[in-house]
Amino acid sequence: MGALVAAGVSMRQAETFEAKTRLLVEPQDETRVLDPYAPLPADDSTVDSPGRRLWTHAEQIQSDSVAAEVRRSLRIDTSTRELLEQISVSPVGLGYTIQITATGDSAEEAIALANGFANAYISHVGERNADAKAAAASTITEGLESMGDASAQGEVVDRLAVRADELLIEATLPLTNISVVNEAVEATRTAPLVFRDAVLAAVLVAFLTAGTMILAAQGRRGRSGAGVAADVHGHQ
């Protein structure tokens, strides 16, 4: 029995580790230009609330494009799907903080993944902000060029004023600045081996004990039946 228990304990699962990184998501004063012909909501405060914005960022962190960037930056062969299965992302508390939790077969892997996803998303947001600024500049330039052939100076001034007001209305979504507030520097075991091994050993001992008792009971019944048969044969 001892040998079987030892064999069962040796079949323990591999260690897993967990690391956490936190990001601060804060809006900037700069703005992103939207479609000038899109109608505005009656109350835009309900459309882009902080809570909804944080959950949007959390979903974007878990996107294939961010996972692909993590693969490239860390130079690993793990598929994007497998990488995404190793992380979970959610807002923390009532502030502007998002937590990335990563698991790995080693502490180093968990830390690298948590920080890797954080840095990849920061780069992603930076590129998106740059694209938004370029789009805003292009929109303004095109608007001014289209006004260049106005026949009267007064008309040009009026149209510029109207266009300026339109651009202010269009800028309803703030650009976002994201930074790491708590970088993952250590990882913790998610399932201590001592506890797991103790549970496994207890289950195996209980199973083997029950099996031994069943076999013993069957042996007693067999011997009893054999004795009865012998008595009957003797009387005959």
Automatic annotation (TrEMBL):
Keywords from the UniProt entry: Membrane, Transmembrane, Transmembrane helix
Source domain of life: Bacteria
InterPro entries: Bact_polysacc_biosynth/exp
Transmembrane residue ranges: 198-217
The protein, known as: Chain length determinant protein
Higher taxonomy: Bacteria, Bacillati, Actinomycetota, Actinomycetes, Geodermatophilales
